[in-house]
């Protein structure tokens, strides 16, 4: 019997990609059209953004825990959150959570170490890139996180928040990401890029990136699948 995956969602596009990945790739483990039981809950993104813009990470944690409690009540066995930015609230979430969580940056770090990567460009929202979410998890695996420049962070954040989370995918925005990634390969010596916003994989992947990509959305979904089918 597989475990029941609970998804604490935040932004729609990234959560949808994570959910689709669990459902579609579950068949490789369980047979045609099969996947573990999955439930998802999300508060409006506006509620999260109100807290994030005020730097109120305990408020973010409260929203995450509200979703966690609802998911626990309907039978989820463990939780994932397909949103990198709000993982900054995990220090307040984990001690009060009714269920265990898989951490998105840990899933990425484990895969990077497995692939023998060493120096990773970290892309994502300004809040995520300025944080220690990825540097801490990567360092635990002996890996180095490299942040984009200040102007690059601002442009990436604008694209994510004004376009990607709204389902808008513009060619010039793809080109902007490609320029940042290529520069970080050339000037910063990065050997891979973390797609550290769950919407970035909707426009960037190995086919159009100068660096190998670490798709945080799908890596989290695959970690959840592995956890769900593991013997209990």
SSE arrangement:
Layout: E1 5-9, H1 12-30, E2 38-42, H2 45-53, H3 57-73, E3 78-80, H4 90-93, H5 104-114, E4 119-123, H6 126-129, H7 133-139, E5 144-146, H8 150-162, H9 171-188, E6 192-195, E7 213-215, H10 216-229
Parallel strand pairs: 1-2, 1-3, 4-5, 4-6, 6-7
Helix pairs in contact: 1-10, 2-3, 5-7, 5-10, 8-9
Descriptive notes:
The structure is a single chain. With 232 residues, this protein is of the alpha/beta class. It folds into two domains: 5-103 and 219-229, Rossmann fold (3-Layer(aba) Sandwich); 104-216, 3-Layer(aba) Sandwich (Rossmann fold). The protein is 50% helix and 12% strand. The protein is built from ten helices and seven strands. It has helices at 12-30, 45-53, 57-73, 90-93, 104-114, 126-129, 133-139, 150-162, 171-188, 216-229; strands spanning 5-9, 38-42, 78-80, 119-123, 144-146, 192-195, 213-215. A four-stranded parallel sheet has the order 5-4-6-7, sandwiched between helices. Strand 1, helix 1 and strand 2 form a beta-alpha-beta unit. Helix 1 packs across helix 10, helix 2 runs antiparallel to helix 3 and helix 5 (104-114) crosses helix 7 (133-139).
